[in-house]
Amino acid sequence: MKPYISLIIPVYNVEQYLEKCLDSVVIQTLKNIEIITINDGSNDNSIKILEQYAKKDSRIKIIDQGNKGLSEARNSGIVNSEGEYLAFLDSDDYIDSIMLETMYNKAKNDKLDIVICGFSQVDTKGNILYQTVMKNEIFDNDYICSRMLSSKITSMACNKIFKKDLFIKNKLLYPKDLYHEDVAITYKLFIKSQKIGSVSENFYNWLQRKDSISKSITQKHIDDIFFIVRDTKRYLLQNNILDKNYLYYLRRYFHFTMGLFSRIEHSTLLDKEKTYLESIVRKNLLEDNILTESNIKMLLEYDNDLSKKCAKYYNEKFDKNLQIDSLDIINYKNRILELEKQVEELKKYKGSKKDMKKIIDKILPKKSNKRQVVKTILGNTIMPKLKKPTFTNKDKIELKQYHNMFQGERCFVIGNGPSLNKCDLSLLKDEYSFAVNGIFYKTREMGYRPNFYMVEDGHVVNDNIKEINKFDCEHRFFPYIYKNKIRKTKKTHFFNADLSFYNSKNPIAQFSTDFSEKAYAGQSVTMMQLQLAYYLGFTEVYLIGMDFSYDVPTSTEITGNTYESNEDDPNHFHPDYFGKGKKWHDPKLDRVLMNYEKCKEAFEEDGRKIYNATVGGKLELFERKDYDKLF
């Protein structure tokens, strides 16, 4: 009969712990199991112990190979297994007698691809140092993946059973010669699974050895961690789930990065070695451009406890088991002084200093211990990425691919006036449509997303950054000045916005026929959308929701050209659009009209046309069309 579970146990120089491990396996209450042990080139008595147990229990198979590492040992077990499910056990750990039976029954009864149990960290005397808290639950893979990516569920393989087909059908094996191999593969198995469950018991006993490799830190550890987080991003992209999991990916990246700093900080390396390894971490962070202002803000919005977590890595005491001589203590103190000097250097930085201070103050409360150390590490990482963004040749090339892509087609530019609520927007589902700013208040009602989305105004970006980064549609366009705020995806493009119109007392309306070079601001974001529609080749453009009227409530606070609302917004289709606490600029409709005249002129000179299909409103510049009769 086919084994219910194949239990895979890599073995390397663990004679001191191996018998306890095997004893916990042979007494499992689930009898129909296959026990695959892989002797990975041990040079102690491990192989003899395996042979002794194999003579007594026919379920034990021995694969004897040269030293190839944990991943290769596990892979040998996988390809030679016959069980319906796979489980993994490290040879210095041990498991409770009912673990496999309980988890297998859970898997079969609930038709699960993966089952997770809790674990206990124990010392060599069996004392429990730490225990997880698990519940008896069932999840879909979206939920469980988000929890794993955000490090709320451990990636370790040994407290789980997996349906073997997850490995075989998806051609997934453990990567060779890589630290943290569990982290590199487990989330992929979760993504490919359909249904996952957990049991509440802490069945797995994870031995915490003084000589454990997990307490060391080398450049390879750092290189491997960054390989894993980059591979994670690639895999999420390949499976078209990066956008919806971006926040969780960000948390994973942050968790691993701060973990590296922690391990370096609490290692027994010399001062110069620590400084060298920290510089490697920083170099990788800068290359990935991950800890930008927008990403840090996103983390803070999601996790209010982030500041404590940052500080935690630097407040932990040295492991009592580590031997630290007086020279190391002196080096440690010298290192702190050196870092404090770096902080002083940061004060000379002339870039986005104010923005950086706000972020650091949010992440690190003034009363945080060793604030200077954490501030320096994060500061040196983030600050270079807050320099003034630029419009690059790559940006231009991305935009050029759009030239005349929709030549001869018609499109609808959706405004945000109250009249939009009088339009049956379901009629636009199969039309090309442009939308701006707070259209996300409307899309649930619409039942679809517009094809094109744009935001120009800085107040809109700052007040709605979370919603903007979440808003997904086919084509997203933003001025390049927001690169540090708006997340770049394949669907997101940055353009060169000429904002000089806003800085002139007597501005002149301008229209760009080459959107890849620049687009001119014109008091309304629709001005830039019309330039984009022109560049894309649309022949007919229909405006809707362009009421062209504006009532400023008496409660509005006005500072220069900036308005701040203290009540519901009466001027847009949703009361929260520019609702209480939100800011916008003086609409200056006379200037908007000036720019619309320029748009009308540019389109008609090229034999194209802009129509106004708004229900009511006061914009009479463009020929009127009855919205309902256009379909």
From TrEMBL:
GO terms for molecular function: hexosyltransferase activity. Pfam families: Glycos_transf_2, MptE-like. Residues 6-133 form the Glycosyltransferase 2-like domain. The keyword NADP does not apply. Residues 397-551 form the 6-hydroxymethylpterin diphosphokinase MptE-like domain. Keywords: Glycosyltransferase, Transferase. It comes from the Bacteria. InterPro entries: Glyco_trans_2-like, MptE-like, Nucleotide-diphossugar_trans. This is Uncharacterized protein.
